[in-house]
Amino acid sequence: MKRLLINKIVLSLCTLSAILGIVFLGWILTTLFIKGISSFHFSLFVNDLINGGLRNLIIGQFILVGLASIVGIPLGMIAGIYIREYGRGKYPNIIRNLSDIMMSAPSIVIGAFVYAVVVVPSGHTSGFAGAIALSIMMIPIVISTTDSMLSLVPKELREAGIALGASKYKVIFDIVIRSAKVGIMTGILLAIARIIGETAPLLFTSQTSNYFSLDLTHAFPSLTVSIYTLANDVEASSRDLAWAASFILTVLVLFINLSGKFITRNKK
Questions:
Q1: pTM of the model
Q2: How far apart are the first and last CA of the chain?
């Protein structure tokens, strides 16, 4: 009887916590969508911030995320493959532990690190520094996902490939990675969704610009940093732009997350 009572109390608390979480999340999303849609218009995509649009910020954000992905995805996958397929002794565990620490590290700490290592020696912020900060955030997520997905591939597949005379790297790339490609791709999409909405690292490294620019050696336009700047502006029009930018960013993150779930569901 006592155990049943405790079970009911714990179940009730869990249910109440879930309902409260959903209520607050719904409240936030509802407010964001109402204010975002009311401030949304298609001229946002054709004008730069200096002219009341968001074109330069959206393009700049995609460039930063793209550069970070070019660096972070290959390095993360190579490290994950090494840990699972080649690592022996204590080194794989050291890399896993470091990866876990990096995943849990606050993004502002990574931004401060890149600021000290890249921005201070160069004397100014830059798009390259922002991309480096985002790639550092991305690498541990890709490492963890690659390692986890490869661990789910049956050992018998590896043994079958080797028994047929294939070399180790051929077995890894043609059999193991192909078997785990859906899970790895989902992890990559989640990593992109994580960094595309980051603000703190870019405040220290790339900042933002009101003008369209492809020069990565100086301050670079960023959607997330501009949302922070516009939201603190005294002008109502600037705050409306912040709501519109937040709405666009939320839709992008939602689309990326749903894409990952869609890929996984179709594979299942």
A1: 0.86
A2: 41
